Amino acid sequence: MIDSIYSTLYNIDIPMLVVLGICVLFSLLFLLVGIALFKRRFFPSFFFLLSLLSLFSAPFFIAYGSKKFLFKTTILHNQSRPLMFSDSFLIHLSFRNDGYRKIKHCMITISPKREKNLRNQLLDIFKPLERSYYVFSADISPHAAKQIQTIIPYFMREHAFKLILDCR
After folding, report:
1. What's the pLDDT tens digit per position in 25-36?
2. I need a labelling partner for 163 at 20 to 30 A (CA). Which of 3, 72, 79, 96 fits?
3. In terms of domains, do 86 and 18 share one?
4. Range of the domain at 13
5. Distance between CA 167 and CA 61 in Å, rounded?
6. What's the pLDDT tens digit per position in 53-82?
7. Domain check: are 55 and 115 in the same one?
8. Do residues 62 and 78 share a domain?
9. Which parts pass through the membrane (predicted)?
10. What DSSP letter does each residue of 80-121 carry, written as one string?
11. How many domains does the chain divide into?
């Protein structure tokens, strides 16, 4: 538990703190306007709602900004696949850092997929299949490329899969 909190706090940098500060300032501004208009009928509740919305939307703005702008990655070459005669998965991937910040570490997630029907979609929501993760350290400067080749344990080779690359 403490390790996950430490790793989350370790990954927060200055641009993310600026976005968080802006969202908190907007929240305080809407809260003060709501307090100033307390005698009115509709406006205070509207501004209190905007205050809560701006406060709780901060993590989503931070996640979107870091994924789409600061640490954006483009996959150049992907030949990853489950191996046929062993319970393992070959990750053969090359990607480029198209963001504005240097990437320090990445996580590859392999999510098995079920067939598309209503029963399987409900099963994916309530009881998803086991995912496999691979975390690696990488010093990738902006507009530089990196190639990964490794084999990890994977026990769902009969299912289709989705590969997700997340870098910070």
Report:
1. 999 999 999 999
2. 3
3. no
4. 2-69
5. 17
6. 998 988 888 888 888 888 899 999 999 999
7. no
8. no
9. 14-38, 45-64
10. -EE-SSSSEEEEEEEEEE-SSS-EEEEEEEEEEE--SSHHHH
11. 2
Type of residue found at 50: L
Q: State whether 56 and 88 are in the same domain.
A: no
Question: Of the candidates 28, 48, 69, which is a domain's last residue?
Answer: 69
* Assigned token pair, 33: 């306007």
- Dmax (CA) of the chain: 73
Q: Per the structure block, which two tokens stand in for 36? A: 């100033």
Name the DSSP class of 5: H
CB 95 within 8 A of CB 73: yes
**What is the number of other CB atoms lying within 10 angstroms of the CB of residue 30?**
20
Q: What is the token pair recorded at 66?
A: 């870091």
* Cα–Cα distance, 124 to 116 (Å, whole number): 10
Q: Which residues pair with 113 in a beta bridge?
A: 160
